[in-house]
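Reviewer 2 asked us to include a model.

Predict the structure of this chain.
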Amino acid sequence: MSDDNQQIENVVRAFSDCWNRHDMEAFAQLFAEDAEFVNVVGLWWKGREEIKRAHVATHATMFKNSRLTIDKVAIRLVTPDVAVARSSWELSGHLSPAGEALPGRKGILMNLLARTNGIWKIIDAQNTDIIEGVLAPPQHGKRN
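Predicted model (C-alpha cells):
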C-alpha cells in the first residue's frame, strides 16, 4: 500500500475511532474547515463546525452507546492530492429518537479527501444505509 493510501485509510479509520470514543472534537478535526457532509437520512451539514455540532448532539443521545466498525476501505486517487475513499461499516448500540434500542445497521460511507500542506482532510462525505431486500422503485416515465 502506498504511503498516500495508508494516510487516507488512517483518516477513514480515525472516523470510527473518534466515533467510538464519542470524541467529536477529534472527529471534527478530520474534516476541512469548509467540508460538507450528507448523512444517511439526507441531512446536509456545511462546514466543520456544523458537522461537529450535529454529531455532538446525536452522541449525547441516540449514539451515546453506539459502536461503529469500518470494514473494508477502497481508495481511488483522483489526482495526487484528491482521493475518494469508500468504506463499508456496521453500527450497533444506537437508539431511536424515543430512546428505544434499534437493530444493527450496515452502510457505505464515501469520503472525498484533499491533501493540503501534506495533511489529508475530508472535504465532502456522503453516508448511505444498506437496506437489505429493498429495491429501487420503478422509474416514472419511459425513456425512448
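The chain has one domain: 3-130. Residues 3-21 form the longest helix (19 residues). We have added this to the supplementary material.
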